[in-house]
From TrEMBL:
It holds the Pfam family 2OG-FeII_Oxy. Gene3D superfamilies: B-lactam Antibiotic, Isopenicillin N Synthase, Chain. Belongs to the iron/ascorbate-dependent oxidoreductase family. Residues 182-289 form the Fe2OG dioxygenase domain. This is Fe2OG dioxygenase domain-containing protein. It comes from the Eukaryota. It comes from Amphimedon queenslandica (Sponge). One of its GO terms (molecular function) is metal ion binding.
Length: 344
């Protein structure tokens, strides 16, 4: 295989597109998705611009919206900015946000269940002394990322509908897992060039990686790679496919949660990012159920009845799996140590 398969999201052949998506996810597990509504090269350029703008802010300003792990003055633990760790195989910094009253107008948590992973977002704010032009950049940043979050929610939910159709399930089978509450995350990423010898853990079969080999935990990932290389996908023959940039398209893959519910029929394909020899930016969106969502451990496929399906609550499962990732593994421990309590 020389390239990922391509799916046209604008196709009017619903059944054919659904069938093709399922076939690709049963075999390769990754695809290019073209013609996502509301997304084009102009939108992509704007996203890259605000991504670079944020990570070019002075460190002191980025730390104002950092997680407690990086700034003990802040009482955010899951959302916000996370910094670099030169001793970890993954060498990246990021800024994350998810659902709150800004990204989902009218949204309001009905309880504290799941806090801090259900906490409100933190947004970079200008100084009173900043120029009007700079203040407008802060406002533009928020406007662009919130708009993209909404776009990604719509596109990923439609993708799940097509996947359901292709599996022979009702089109809206997965809908209740994400509406009205979702833990879905948009993550701005910056991979700076290492100016030092990488740790041994960053060497994989002779390649230097800036993000180690892994499979996503979530339901669906939509990735904007901009025009940067580095992403590699592990194929079934145990060889690595280098994913070439495809401007205006998304790289889409599925995660362990969905794979396990199909008994492995749908692939949660492993992937990594090798050192591209310079800095790199990317923008993944992770579609995740709500904290209280009852996720099916198996789907009613191949003659299985709906009443035979067993379920798990997504939030506790997510918290357990978070321990594997350096940037969020200590969320609960730090939350407990901080003495911070969210008010009702």
């Amino acid at each position: 295989m020389e390239s990922l398969p391509i799916v046209d999201f604008s196709s009017t052949d619903t059944e054919g597109t659904a069938s093709r998506i399922v076939h690709i996810m049963e075999t390769v597990g990754f695809l290019y998705l073209d013609n996502v509504p509301g997304y084009n090269l102009e939108e992509e350029a704007e996203l890259l611009e605000i991504n670079k703008w944020f990570f070019n802010l002075p460190e002191e300003r980025r730390l104002r919206v950092a997680r407690y792990l990086y700034n003990k003055k802040n009482k955010v633990f899951y959302r916000g900015y996370f910094g670099l760790d030169k001793d970890y195989s993954s060498y990246k910094e990021g800024y994350e946000f998810g659902q709150d009253s800004v990204t989902s107008p009218g949204y309001k948590l009905t309880s504290n269940e799941g806090f801090p992973v259900t906490e409100e977002n933190v947004w970079p704010e200008p100084e009173p002394s900043d120029s009007q032009e700079e203040k407008e950049r802060y406002a533009k940043f928020k406007e662009v990322v919130v708009k993209h979050y909404g776009r990604m929610m719509s596109a990923s939910m439609r993708f799940l509908q097509l996947l359901a159709i292709g599996l022979g399930l009702p089109e809206t089978y997965f809908h209740h897992l994400f509406v009205p509450e979702t833990l879905s995350t948009l993550r701005l990423l910056h991979y700076p060039q290492r100016g030092f010898e990488p740790p041994p853990s960053a060497i994989e079969d002779g390649q230097v990686v800036v993000c180690e080999t892994h499979a996503d935990n979530v339901f669906v990932t939509f990735l904007t790679t901009f025009n940067y290389t580095g992403l590699q996908v592990l194929l079934h023959d145990n060889t690595w496919l280098t994913v070439q940039p495809r401007p205006g398209s998304f790289v889409v893959n599925l995660g362990k949660t969905l794979s396990e519910s199909t008994g492995g029929r749908i692939k949660a394909t492993k992937h990594r990012v090798v050192d591209p020899g310079g800095e790199r930016y990317s923008l993944p969106f992770f579609l995740e159920p709500g904290y209280s969502a009852k996720v099916p451990l198996s789907l009613p496929l191949d003659g299985k009845e709906e009443n035979d399906v067993k379920y798990m609550q997504y939030g506790p499962w997510l918290l357990e799996n978070m321990k594997k990732y350096a940037e969020i593994k200590d969320v609960l421990k730090l939350f407990e140590e901080s003495g911070f309590k969210k008010e009702n």
